[in-house]
Amino acid sequence: MQTIKFTSTIPNEHQFVVELRKKVSNYFKQNNLSPKANDKMVVKTIILLCSYLVPFVILLFLNVPLVLAAALVVLMGIGIAGVGMGVMHDACHGAYSKKHIVNNLLGGSLYLLGSNVLNWKIQHNVLHHTYTNISGFDEDIDDKGPIRLSENKPLKWYHKYQFIYAFIFYGLMTVTMLTNDFTRLHKYHREGLLKSQNKKIWNEFVKMLLRKVTYLAIIIGLPLLFTNYTFWQILLGFFIMHWTASIILSFIFQMAHVVEGAKQPLPEINMHVDWSVHQLNTTADFAPNNKFLSWYVGGLNFQIEHHLFPNICHIHYKNIAPIVEQTAKEFGLKYNIQPTFRSALLSHIYRLKELGKLN
Known about the structure:
The protein is mainly alpha-helical. It has one domain. The protein is built from 15 helices and two strands. It has helices at about 10-30, 40-60, 65-90, 100-105, 115-130, 160-170, 175-190, 195, 200-225, 230-255, 275-280, 290-295, 305-310, 315-330, 340-355, and strands at about 285, 335-340. A two-stranded parallel ribbon has the order 1-2.
């Protein structure tokens, strides 16, 4: 796979990086804090995991009415999205703990969604974080079916209406991953990305297949064995759970990168910008004062801080965000932030409309 280098000859950009890292490091030293998870994070992990697992246990062993069953599968979707954002995400970045075994165990919570950790780490940690918003490299801004997320992708007539229909297709993200993971694994093998991770295609293919079969056997098979719901009712519940999780996950990630002010540069062998400054240019924060949102989405509303310091647990982002914003302003660099969830959502919708305009 072709690589891109981020090299800047602008002293101001290099000085910004040095100063920012120094200030953030001093924050942890002066407050005698570990940059990894704390006790509050452990409690949060338990709550989020229970919000997914407890409703499932209730569905299995209590004969609840269909209306309540529907509410429980929605809660499962909310729970698994929370686990993905607030637990798995940190663990797969190595930000949850200094111990690899803890990160690996909690990162494996992605299997509760029927997805694959190796694929996620390559797609997210390697491609998205390294080449943020660069078309052809960052898969997060690749076309999602009929949705155009990059200004550097071909424009079709139907994209004019994507700001309306996008929300339907966003809900299919995690369901399609059940099968798309296989084609994606092959793609990464073809591009040499598996080799760079010291992984072999057939080993990973077999492990992925076994994990997905096990997941489906539990999430669909157990309700068939232990409940009186019909196969079609169980399948509908399965879809509702995934659609709920997908809508939440899609919105949170899109509102950090496909919004007004987030650049989408064309790929060049040398980007002529410092990598950290590139993260500022392509990323946005939103709703920094919404405590519940920050708690639930795993600090991903502080996306700038996450991209600059992916190895720091999100529990600390709110406190280092003012340091990042102040330092950026000191060096004359843009710090893109939307004050509320609503303003960020509207900014994303407006960006979808812009990306769908026929010139």
